[in-house]
Amino acid sequence: MHNTGVEIMRLASLGLGIPENTFDYMFASKPCSTFRIMHYPPWDGSPPDNAKIEDGKVLITPDHTDTNFLTLLARFGYKGLEVLTQDNEWAEIETRPGSLVMNIGDTLSRMMGGRFKATRHRVIDIGVDRYSVPFFMSPNFEVDVGIDLMSKALGEKKEYTPEKYGHYALRRIKYEKKYFEYRDLPDIK
């Protein structure tokens, strides 16, 4: 999955007209990527009121964007993943055998000056156990994510505030997104 992500970023670089290896240094040594197995069981009994949304649907995972750089997701044919379209409508992602779903994360969007938009998505209860395997591609903890890579690659001088990926990611998941599993992280300086 790591090699696939690196290749996708090389192809994206070529498509943007910037050097092919623009992103390589971020993932060459000790990336903070994670590979998870996700199990989404159906609600046992009646779901809580805050899980019920439009059209009688029930949420398992509320809408969000991923903090990381790029997410590659194997879905095994399960339905239930929806993305927010440019028209501000939720659309179900069709399943295709042998394919991956790719989401742009907040970090990549930030480093490209918004040229790529982070993918807002959610998971709907489909009434049966659902599984997916996401690979959250993230750079090295020490990589400066404050820089606008698009401007840098084009040789434009743009002022910015340096920020290490690790500090940025921990701040986002603890304070801004308030993920329950990260509530006990120490404060970031």
From TrEMBL:
Describe the location of the Fe2OG dioxygenase domain by residue ranges: 30-139
The UniProt entry, under SUPFAM superfamilies, shows: Clavaminate synthase-like
Pfam families found in the cross-reference section: 2OG-FeII_Oxy (PF03171)
Q: Which domain of life is it from?
A: Eukaryota
Identify the InterPro entries for this entry. IPNS-like_FE2OG_OXY, IPNS-like_sf, Iron_ascorbate_oxido_reductase, Oxoglu/Fe-dep_dioxygenase_dom
- What name goes with this protein? Fe2OG dioxygenase domain-containing protein
Natural source organism:
Tegillarca granosa (Malaysian cockle)
